[in-house]
């Protein structure tokens, strides 16, 4: 799992969170409830802090330093490290369609964006669960629309 309310770190250093963690909260009427807290903020932070730095390490080596001797020596270790992170992410996803269960959230959007950085490799697609997750997320009409809008700005200035 990717996070834990006890802030323990797994072997790969990814924070873990129990998926069944519950909290006492008040609903709009002031009544006490026992609900699972929304985790989209957690996955948003995980995408940017626990996954992206290691994804970018591989991307930088591949895209900017591929011919450098030090990069050729460093890449296998960088790939292994990101694969460990992605294995923890895949485990956190489990059998759910999205990181937050049945809901596609801002955290899922950010995680998908981070995972797409490695499209030039088979690192993400080698995990069937993550490959299906990225496909599911990127095929959403809202995702495609947002991506087209972003790319449109680049096309205008190209």
What does this structure look like?
The protein is mainly alpha-helical. It has helices at 40-64, 69-93, 106-115, 128-138, 141-157; strands at 23-26, 32-35. Strands 1-2 form a two-stranded antiparallel sheet. The termini are far apart.
The major pleated sheet works out as: 2 strands, antiparallel
Whole-number mean pLDDT: 81
User: For the terminal residues, how far apart are their CA atoms?
Assistant: 42 Å
Q: Provide the gyration radius in Å.
A: 18 Å
Alpha-beta content class: mainly alpha
Which architecture does the CATH hierarchy give at level 2? Answer: Up-down Bundle
The number of strands is: 2
Query: Structurally, how many domains make up the residues?
Result: 1
Strand content: 5-15%
Q: Report the top-level CATH class.
A: Mainly Alpha
Helix and strand succession?
EEHHHHH
Topology:
Elements: E1 23-26, E2 32-35, H1 40-64, H2 69-93, H3 106-115, H4 128-138, H5 141-157
Antiparallel strand pairs: 1-2
């Amino acid at each position: 799992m990717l996070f834990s309310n006890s802030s323990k770190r797994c072997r790969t250093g990814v924070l873990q969170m129990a998926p069944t963690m519950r909290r006492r909260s008040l609903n709009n009427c002031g009544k006490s409830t026992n609900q699972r807290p929304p985790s989209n903020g957690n996955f948003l932070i995980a995408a940017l802090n626990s996954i992206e730095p290691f994804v970018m390490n591989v991307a930088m080596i591949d895209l900017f330093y591929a011919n450098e001797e030090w990069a050729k020596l460093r890449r296998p270790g960088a790939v292994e490290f990101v694969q460990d992170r992605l294995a923890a992410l895949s485990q956190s996803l489990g059998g759910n369609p999205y990181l937050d269960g049945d809901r596609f959230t801002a955290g899922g959007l950010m995680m998908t964006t981070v995972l797409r950085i490695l499209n030039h490799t088979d690192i993400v697609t080698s995990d069937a669960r993550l490959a299906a997750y990225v496909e599911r997320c990127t095929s959403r009409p809202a995702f495609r629309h947002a991506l087209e809008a972003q790319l449109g700005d680049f096309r205008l200035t190209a």
